[in-house]
Amino acid sequence: MKYPRVILAGTNSGVGKTTLTMGLILALKKRDLEVQPFKAGPDYIDPSYHSFASGRSCRNLDTWMLSRDTILELFERRAKDVDISIIEGVMGLYDGLKDTQKGSSAHLAKILNSPVILIVDARSMSRSAAAVVLGYKEFDKDVRISGVILNNIGSPSHYSSAKFAIEIKTGLPVLGFLPRDINLTLPERHLGLIPAYEKAPLDEFSRKLSNLVDKNIDVDKIIDISRKARAFPKVKKKLFKNKPPQDRVTIAVAKDAAFNFYYQDNLDILTHNGASLVEFSALGDKMLPQGADGLYIGGGFPELFAAELSKNTKLKADIYKKAKEGLPIYAECGGLMYLVKELIDSKNRGFPMVGVFEKLSVKMADGLRALGYVNIEVFKDNILSDKGVNARGHVFHWSYLDCLPSKENFTYKVTKDKGKMFLDGLAKWNVLTSYSHLHFGSNIGFAKNFIKSCSAYKNKK
Asked: Angle between the 105-112 and 68-79 helix axes, to the nearest 10 degrees?
């Protein structure tokens, strides 16, 4: 099969990849094309905009956390039913882990045999943009850059000068531009963009953005480039090759403005392996969904909704009661913050949380506490895995565990850059919570063992 596809990659972070990707998706939708969005790397927020624009869940493709075959399987599974796949890159085109290509947009392009459109922020240059593009073209000739889009163009003459130089010096077509416009800037805060879940309605922003893309960018040429992608590599399926089991467990999934950091493929893997997922709101619902055999709380921004979460005492009491009774609970990052005794925000205000870990508080720091990929070694059995298992994940948080007792039950040894090691994977009863985010495609055993734990709980009820 030959799935139309293209990667929108930047020369560096902050060049407007997310805005341009969203705008292109909207413009393609106006042409009645079915678009599947993807995002390179470990990101939960940018995909929320692409999901909004396309009407389909954006998927993450991370070449460091996931194997080549897993990347190809996850891509093909969703690309085969659409007219075109649009993939937003991560950071700069060639930026990977340390001095390697792992995790980079370039590495993903090579795995997927995908053409690349390079986004250049031309705010402070015109003819010099050609030198930048030429360097990216020549840096790795196995990466097929098929066109250029310029962002932050100040005038028609500015665009004409940059376009002419790029096309003459590099031979690459300039496919269009977006004008310099402060109203096209997506809002940010400490973890990046504000998720689309929280923003005011995006209709007006979307209308303006799609019109600008239609007016200034050759969308038809991008469609043509996507359809000329090289043959898609053969896929060796592992994650979704077996039929789903008939016996199922029910897993409640916290999904609202406070908790919405989930890899959609994680949810699909759970469903395929025997879980029926039921969403609820930690902000509004007073009880867990009836008949829940397990609970999954992803990351998010509980610190911004600490007062509301704290006031929902009935739900907190229900979660605590069921946790004590042995309900399997898996929580990542924001979920960890919700399950401790108290959350202390940036203004030093304390808010009572669920209290499963009754001696622990989480405190917001003044800056970033951890960011990047991590290797995880499980050294104690837990609801997701047996000891001796290894996996890859990532961390990204501003909070930290405050006044940590020495006897807390950790289950992970986590190593990061330069061999730095720390403990993670707090466990109590059938609860496991960590700052490390997992992609179940890295080790499907985590998903299967979670379902197994839920099944054991179900059979004891």
From this structure: 70
Question: For residues 221 and 199, which has the higher predicted lDDT (pLDDT)?
Answer: 221
Structure letter (DSSP) for residue 383 = S
What are the strands of the beta sheet with 5-10, ordered from one edge?
59-61, 35-40, 84-92, 5-10, 116-121, 145-153, 174-179
pTM of the model: 0.92
3-state SS, residue 56: coil
Angle at which helix 128-139 crosses helix 156-170, to 10 degrees, equals 40
pLDDT tens-digit readout, 339-383: 999 998 888 899 999 999 988 888 877 766 666 788 899 999 999
Of 131, 186, 166, 191, nearest to 21 by C-alpha is: 186
Task: Please report where in the chains the tokens 């979307």 appear, as a residue.
Answer: 206
The structure tokens 């948080």 sit at 397
Q: How many CB atoms lie within 10 A of CB 98?
A: 10
Helices (H), 65-127: 68-79, 105-112
What's the mean pLDDT in 99-113?
94
- What is the rounded distance in angstroms from the CA atom of residue 437 to the CA atom of residue 299? 8
SS3 category, 66: coil
The whole-angstrom separation of Cα 16 and Cα 209 is: 12
Q: Are strands 437-438 and 390-397 parallel, antiparallel or unpaired?
A: antiparallel
What are the pLDDT digits (tens) for 280-297?
999 999 999 999 999 999
- Crossing angle, helix 264-272 and helix 445-460, to 10 degrees? 50
Active-site positions read 333
Cα–Cα distance for residue pair 280/365, rounded to 1 Å = 29
pLDDT in tens, 425-456: 899 999 999 989 999 999 999 999 999 999 99
The DSSP letter of residue 370 is E
Picking from 264, 298, 223, the residue whose alpha carbon sits closest to that of residue 77 is 264
